Amino acid sequence: MFTYGSGYFMIIDVKKRGIPPEVAVFFMKVLCGCFGVTIYGIAIHFVYRFFALERKGKLKYFEINYLALWFVIPVVGGFSWYITIEIFFESGSGSLETEYLRNMFNKSNLNFADFASIGGVYYSTNNSVNWRSISGYSCFVSIMVIAFIIIVVAGWKSWKIVSKLLEHGESDFSRKLQMQLYKALVAQTIIPITLLFIPFGVLFTIPLFNIDWQILNRIIVWIFAFYPVIDPLPIIYFVDYYRIPVIGLLNFFREKSLTKAYRRVQVQNQPDWCREKLFGEHCSKLEKIQYTSIFNKKKF
After folding, report:
1. CA 218/CA 225 separation, integer angstroms
2. E-strand stretches of 16-65
3. Predicted confidence band at 105 (pLDDT cuts at 50, 70, 90)?
4. Where are the transmembrane segments (predicted)?
């Protein structure tokens, strides 16, 4: 995914992967639709958190009778994104987008036939406005803005509730827990805004001004790929109920690894007459085989 001049594109090397261009284009459109699913899934998560903090019985809307509706909303968001690409962004031979990209490939000495692509171009080579791509851009922005407003409003209202709880906590334990949740809430509001909405919004907007921002081109795909890993980190880091068990688990594996390493060094430093005794008292059959292999190598 990258910008070039007044256009933005997603390409895939079909020759290297050995797949038909039509199949590659379809899966690229599905991948783009997943972005719509992602942002509306995040928005619903914020709504759920707000209902939980509000404590006015609205969590009943997330029970089984209404649950299907909440799953449908992200699917609709993803389908809307997919349909926008299908309607407003052509990828066939002879289209403005294809010819624009072909010129770029020719300048780079690449064979255009080896790649499949989708994308939009805001201005043609004679600087006339491509209203088709402009309309698609408007749809993208509208889809993103709706999800963005839901996240900001739900996040702001949740922040107000947590702030009041901090002022009127019933105990030190309650106050400490609410502070942890407050920090996690702030972080989890900032992360999707800075890693999803701003980068993709900039990606779709800067071609309007014929700006090539190569740094963004390099990182935006990685941002989208690693976002699911980054998103839960604030909860794990700020909230004791998650952080302490995770640290304990990591320490357990660390100590286990160090113990095995210590035993290996301890056995290697023993004279030959006591190694068999150490094997019998402390080691499994597999470890005996491993240690015996190490000693035989040392002898030779």
Report:
1. 13
2. none
3. confident
4. 26-52, 64-83, 134-156, 185-207, 219-239
